[in-house]
Amino acid sequence: xxxxxxxxxxxxxxxDSFARYDKMRLFGQIMAIYYGFACIYSFGKSVSIYGFPQxxxxxTNSVLSFYFKVFKSIPGVQGIINSKVDGILKEIELKITDxxxxxGIEDVIALPQIGFSEEKIMEILQKRANEGKIDWxxxxxxxxxxxxxxxxxxxxxxxxxIFNISNPLHPDVFPGLRRMExxxxxxxxxxxxAPKDACGVTxxxxxxxxxxxxxxxxQLAAKERNVTHPNMIAPITIHTAFNKACEYFGVKLIxxxxxxxxxxxxxxxIAGSAVNYPHGVMDDIEQLxxxxxxxxxxxxVDCCLGSFIxxxxxxxxxxxxxxxxxxxxxxxxSCDTHKYGFAPKGSSVVMYSNKKLRHYQYxxxxxxxxxxxxxxxxxGSRPGSLIAGCWAAMTSIGKExxxxxxxxxxxxxxxxxxxxxxxxxxxxxxxxxSTVVAFxxxxxxxxxxxxxxxxxxxxxxxxxxxxxALHIACTRLTVGVEDMLINDLKESIKEIKENPEKLTEGTxxxxxxxSALPDQAPVEDxxxxxxxxxxxx
Length: 537
Ligand SMILES: *Cc1c(COP(=O)(O)O)cnc(C)c1O
Ligand SMILES: *[C@@H]1O[C@H](CO)[C@@H](O)[C@H](O)[C@H]1NC(C)=O
Ligand SMILES: *[C@@H]1O[C@H](CO)[C@@H](O)[C@H](O)[C@H]1NC(C)=O
Ligand SMILES: *[C@@H]1O[C@H](CO)[C@@H](O)[C@H](O)[C@H]1NC(C)=O
Prior knowledge:
The protein has 537 residues and is an alpha/beta fold. Among the domains are: 1-50; 98-132, no CATH class. 46% of the residues lie in helices and 11% in strands. It contains 18 helices and 13 strands. It has helices at residues 2-10, 16-19, 23-33, 37-44, 58-72, 77-97, 118-129, 150-162, 175-191, 206-225, 241-249, 285-294, 355-361, 384-421, 447-456, 482-498, 506-516, 521-534, and strands at 199-203, 231-235, 252-256, 267-273, 298-303, 332-335, 348-352, 363-365, 373-375, 426-428, 436-441, 462-464, 469-473. The strands form three sheets. A seven-stranded mixed β-sheet has the order 1-7-6-5-4-2-3, sandwiched between helices. It has a four-stranded antiparallel β-sheet with strand order 10-11-13-12. A two-stranded antiparallel sheet has the order 8-9. Strand 2, helix 11 (241-249) and strand 3 form a beta-alpha-beta unit. The two termini are 23 Å apart. Mean pLDDT is 83; it is low at 1-58. One 2-acetamido-2-deoxy-beta-D-glucopyranose binds next to helix 8. One of its GO terms (cellular component) is endoplasmic reticulum membrane. The chain crosses the membrane at residues 26-44. InterPro entries: GrpII_AminoAcid_Decarb, PyrdxlP-dep_de-COase, PyrdxlP-dep_Trfase, PyrdxlP-dep_Trfase_major, PyrdxlP-dep_Trfase_small. GO terms for molecular function: pyridoxal phosphate binding; sphinganine-1-phosphate aldolase activity.
């Protein structure tokens, strides 16, 4: 959800309830949208001058929860809420389907009767490629584009071209492609100090790698330990792909606060991150893996974001804890080649400490009238061109290239971190381990107002919640823009202190409200509506 709310805030909702800083009116309207939460809150507490409270205690939350239930039962309230949610959704739809800088080309709603000419297609593609106003090339966007440099893009495009019609579902037709896929897995295993017996598969991305690892451990637990009600333990900072996997497969996900880990008999796996998405912090993998080992359960290390940075930290001269197959108890690792491996998007590797786990991951169906069928991952047919692109990126960059990119990008994070630490209104969260640094603001300054001020300056920082914070995932593009970032942060803070009404903008209102709400239903409605809007013409 945080990613989606990011997008929402990027659109700076211009709904009338968010437009002007008129405290009473704003509160009245939001009260209607959000089950009267804001109103109840303002009775009990004075609202901080820079914005909404950043966090709310669980006790306050349960009290609010009670009041909101009463409030919701008042006749007519649900109707008002629904119409307000509808209004916000219409606004979002408009911003998505008619963005600033939209190329003036007709929408293609149905197949053209007679196909377009090549010139026309090229013209439309060029215009659409330039739609939008976020200048990612300037290095102001957190993560998102893991650019390996102009020359590498040229090379991977050629590789993609050569395998333009290939499909790895048919290794007999494309034996050379199969070989490259196996080599990608082998090269990645080697980086993670895999034992002789280890193995892996390629997938379409981090999410699929994680879903596959959950499936493998789940099958193992079901087949060998008769587990019918599987649980999984992970820190709250684990990537939301684990929530997705658990929702898909009916696994109970036990999210534990950072620092306190517990074991349970029918837990099928523990998961930890090296590094986690929100704060770029590495979990204590050795400690978690030890618990897993002692309980005879699996231990997954999410190195999707750590990808081709973490294995090169030592060689690049940085200190790093143990996170790979050298740690006893680690049974699987996911690593995104399409992040800091600089492969084209749609590429990741999931690795296992032994072949049995990989077998449990596979899907096999021997009774299909269409023939005996087996496929390693979720997809059936797959784009072989992406494997060729990934292979070309990995082999052309090589160890020396990745060590240099690790030095540069982690160096960029360290510079930014030092800059943030020098600003007395900001606090870095935890101990950043590689390329990501997260920070929050010191009360009464609202971190989401800083996000809005930074967005206005062209930055695309990521919004976090629980606790409210922002982060930047450094990439090759952010190398060299560190001073500009720190400078803009200082100016944003100055501006907010001088104009506290900044809180009327998108992120401040959206996240301020969303995190304080005792009930997430309206936020979920808006978020689903956002996804619907993506498929509107
Ligand atoms: C990006 C990421 C993932 C999921 O990757 P996708 O490629 O977006 O599916 C998983 N874990 C972490 C820590 C990530 O940063
Ligand atoms: C696409 O594939 C065909 C058939 O293999 C090949 O002849 C052609 O050169 C490829 N295109 C590019 C751009 O490489
Ligand atoms: C699982 O169930 C089967 C069949 O009911 C039984 O034979 C087996 O011993 C059980 N295994 C474990 C580990 O409980
Ligand atoms: C596992 O734990 C759940 C509770 O989360 C329990 O209901 C279930 O019976 C337990 N045992 C097995 C074998 O799944």
